[in-house]
Amino acid sequence: MAEDGVLICGAGPVGLTLAIELRRFGVPVRIIDKAAARTDRSKAVVIWCRSLELFARAGLADSLVAAGNKVPHGSILDGAETIAQLDFAELETLYPFALVIPQTETERILEEHLVTLGVSVERQTEMTAFTTSDTGVSATLRAADGAERQVAAASLVGCDGAHSTVRHALGFNFEGSTQMSDWLLADLMLAGPIGEDRILIYWHADGILAIFPMGAGRFRIVADLGPAQQEGPRADPTLAEVVALVAERGPQGITGSNPIWLTCFRINERKVEHYGQGRVFLAGDAAHVHSPAGGQGMNTGMQDAFNLAWKLALVHAGGAGPKLLDSYSIERSAVGDLVLSNATRLTDMALLRNPLAQAVRNSVVHFVLGLSQVRRKAERQLGELDITYAKSPLSVSVVPPPDDLPDAGERLPVPVAGLGARALFTVLGNAGEPAALAAEYPHLVDADTGDDPPGEGLWIVRPDGYVGLVAAPGDLPSAQDYLEAVGRGRRLVEW
Ligand SMILES: Cc1cc2nc3c(=O)[nH]c(=O)nc-3n(C[C@H](O)[C@H](O)[C@H](O)COP(=O)(O)OP(=O)(O)OC[C@H]3O[C@@H](n4cnc5c(N)ncnc54)[C@H](O)[C@@H]3O)c2cc1C
Question: Which fold does the domain 6-45+102-176+269-348 belong to in CATH?
Answer without folding.
Answer: FAD/NAD(P)-binding domain (3.50.50)
